Amino acid sequence: MTDIKKAVERVLSHVAAEGNIKAYVGTSASETKEFNVDGGTFSLMRTVFGSAVSLTVIEDGKRGSMGINRLDDEALDSLVTDTLAIARAGQSDPAFDIAPFVEARTFTAGCTECDTEKLFDRTKELLDTITARHPKIIMEQMIISHKKTHRAYGNSNGTRFETHKGVYSVDLMFSAHDGDKSTSFFGSGVVTDSLERPFIELGSIERDLSDVEAQLDPGTVDGKFVGTLLLPPGCLGEFLGDIAGTFADDMPLLEGTSVWKDSLGKVVADPRVNIRIDPTDPAVVCGESYTSEGFVSEGYDFIKNGVLESFTLSLYAANKTGLERAKNGSFSLIVGAGDTSLDEIIAGIDRGIIVGRFSGGQPAASGEFSGVAKNSFEIVNGKITRPLSETMISGNLADILKNVRAISSERICDGASVLPYMAFDGVTVSGK
Amino acid sequence: MKQLNIMNLLPDSGHTEFRVQENTKRRVSMINGDLVGNSSTNVSGVCARSFKDGVWGHSSVGEVSEDAAREVINASRENAAFLASRAAKDGVKIASVTKSGIALPEVPSPAGVPADRVEFLRALDALIVRICPKLTSRNLVLFEEGIEKDLSVTDGVSGHTAMRRSYVYTFLTAEGTDAGEAAGQPQELFRAFGGLGTFEENFGDPAELADGITEIYNQLMDKCSGKYADAGVKTVVLDGNLAGMLAHEAVGHTVEADLVLGGSVAARCLDKVVASPLVSMVDFAHTAFGEVCPLPVYLDDEGTPAEDCVLIENGILKEYMNSRESAAHFGMAPRGNARAYGFADEPLIRMRNTAVLPGHDKLADMIASVDDGYYLINTGNGQADTTGEFMFGITMGYEIKHGKLGRAILDTTISGVAFEMLKTVDMVSDSVKWESSGYCGKKQPMPVGLGGPDLKCLVSIGGR
After folding, report:
1. Within 13 Å and on the Cβ side, how many CA atoms surround A406?
2. pLDDT tens digit string along B382-439?
3. Is A360–B412 a contact, with Cβ atoms under 8 angstroms apart?
4. Is this complex's ipTM strictly greater than 0.90?
5. Contact at 8 Å (CB) between B136 and B175?
6. CA angle A140, A145, A151 (to 5 degrees)
7. pTM tops 0.90, yes or no
8. Under a CB-based contact definition with an 8 Å cutoff, are residues A276 and A299 in contact?
9. A250 contacts in chain B (CB < 8 Å)
10. A390/B31 CB distance under 8 A
11. Helical packing angle, B117-131 and B210-224, nearest 10°
């Protein structure tokens, strides 16, 4: 087995021999065991032995990056040569940089040894449980795996990190069927570091299966109305990802198109909205430990009491724009709970829609979004009346954050994020 | 790429695939003249997949050697045995394939001196600044990809294949004007230039892209004075670019056999009318309308020689896209749709070059026939569903009023139920456009080609 730490040292020493060059290199060795279920039955067992080396160099302000998956000496030496060639063909920018020196750290998380027999048993148990409790569900695909990863990292400022992590992942894609009737497909899943509990008890898997079964006889909306959009945790996470991607990430700030570009420290959302991005939160399984530039990852407030506290910028984008970099490179969302139960939120909605999954085009740079409301339910006069199909929703991402009606006291943790339900007013719902 | 002669390592009976594969990528990105990204990746390795008692075992390692080959072949058989001992399935077979008379094109050697990609983008950026004066932002991405495979199969066709493609993506942004309904808001439009071939084969002088850049710039200026579409069901003329997306999302995914087995609507529609008789749709393997497809496939990763799959013929659903296992299940012929993206991946049922066939109408006549509707030109993404409902984002379009093009519309989304919407198609143009710059998403990404003529039909459009 190639020593990934020695690979880091070899690469950095070769870079140093070329001159005063900033650099960072990450190496990894991983082992994955995976079971696949297709069309409701076991189909595949897979074992993957992976390795990776990724090098970035900055010479005279010119940056180049290269990634390979070989750890032999010949490949490592060629990596240095080729990466330097890429950089030298580039263009100088003083914004390219790496993190200053940080004391060496080793991070350990999760479950690094896979219990293959028990993983199979838990997978079969999940399949059998779903068949028994949710007979109308067809499991289009189930992918359940364990991945063990050993990483080593170093930069030219002397920083050295090492991680040993192992995580189980459960990913389901399913729909409900009854004769000729069928629902939209839906995805659910969790990441976990333990096989102690049956998978059906984790995340929102059980609730998601029940919700999809209840969507078999949908109606359609006549015409259109402006009402309340209620997002369950999974869909809320997708929307928050779109919000960050449209207003707070590198690209919109570098392009100058973000409508939030002058909003740091200003109100961008309802004062009840609190969003942290924190891979170190105990609820996050095997979260990010350090950034690619070499900073130790720390949690930070993205939006606090409705105020934009931080963009989600890399070091380069921060240097380029004069703004602060994000304290980690992840999107591990920890969203604060509200003080209203989900039942109370629904009871308070005159006319609205619960959208389990949103299928839409990329939001416009202005934040305008439109798309199909999948796996959705109509709310009328405080009650869920029927599932819906062939229904579209549209609105503006920046506007809806300011029009939050309510945030639930209940939250779901799926091992990657902790999210409540959130209701937004002022969304157009249109049908046939 | 290093090749291995390991046929002697393969078992004498049963079905085992062994593949050596290398994926390379190069990406250079520039925002407003600043070089923000300049990177390359090269990933290679071997994998094997074995079939036993109705289930599969797969293994891969990132090393190309005889030892690695032996390791993954043995591990794939052990994994198949592990799963078979616990979840064997009776009666599951694999369809056989023709083993002779297959001609694969030669894999080209790498090009000579590589062109200066950064300099190309710099020059292109300077050109855009000159000919597009009202932009607030420009984002250019140069992207190249190479996938080379060497396949050995116990009971199929073995062979060495390669695909290289290269693109320059241009994203132009300008500010909405007071004449439009999004005054002061950024509006963006994107186009990909390029296709099959290396960067050196596809791109020379950046000035050659001037006409295409000017076209999207003019459309962007129209969009900046644009209005929101009216939400609801509308008559639309879909540009050929969108017809390809329709073929892929609305129909293609629903007739992939694994999705059929997972409950897609197509399970009930074989040999039934699913579209207007004007509509025919084919998943082409490597040659369409006498020319090489955008992303030709000659051999899939199960050892099946690739041939065309007729999905819809004159409005009738004819066939699914299959793996060798699903082909045996459905009593169909496998046509080379089982493909894997990387060396560590197992083959999945994927589309190749999916297109609606051309008809006889002219675009101008199609627009003139619409009293109140839209001409939709550009899309960025799309998605399919088990129910047959499709969605794709619209990034450029115009109103049609009384047979004439009117104002541009702002970004929106269209959707419909495929096998209902296709029955509303009443005009099909006589020319085909192809698109191939993105990826199809499933468990693994996959480069695919999409194509079609202009279509007139009814769809649901999102708006205010």
Report:
1. 18
2. 888 888 888 888 999 999 999 999 999 999 888 888 899 999 999 999 999 999 998 9
3. no
4. yes
5. yes
6. 140
7. yes
8. yes
9. 36
10. no
11. 50
